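1st attempt posting a full record on here, be nice pls
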Amino acid sequence: MPIFLSDIDLKQNQLLNAVIENSWSEPQNPQAGQLYFDTTKKCLKYYNNEEWIAIDFNDLDEKLESAVDESLGKKTGEFDTKVTNKATETLNSAKAYVNTEIAKLVDGASGEYDTFKEIEAFLKANANALSQAGQTLRKEVFEIGDGVKSDYTITHTLNTQDVVVEVYTVNAPYEKVLVDVEHTSANTIKISTAAAIRSDEKLKVVVVG
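the predicted structure (as tokens):
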């Protein structure tokens, strides 16, 4: 299971099929805004920086319905119609955008490669050459974590900023760790975490390019 040592920015994308932490006891050292599902009392709780508060969804539903009716000043049926129309408009815009981008892709190629069938034929005919090209990739491995620093500048010899960086724990179960990575130059990258990496929880940094 990946370990997150920095904030995650989903860029307004959806978090699908997620489950809040389930626990029979309150999490230790909570932060303001933290959530968990109390499996004993069968309710969702949040931490307000002083205590854990149970969320009453029945009360929330009533307040939400009242707020929607008041702010929109419309009947529920009219509101549903507006939402449906907006969703249809957004879908049509998305379809138009995709069609435009596909047209650019096709029209921007020469006559020999302006269809996906021709591109497929090219890839098949040059499969060996492309495979050999992929074998020129090199890998360098580093370890970080001294219990003091949260920023590390790593120097490699791959001579390109177009590198792939993977970070995972040195010790079992070798979990993938998500950190902030900056490609600072052709031979350096910067690894940053929200807190210092403990010396007994070192991380391995793999740079491929």
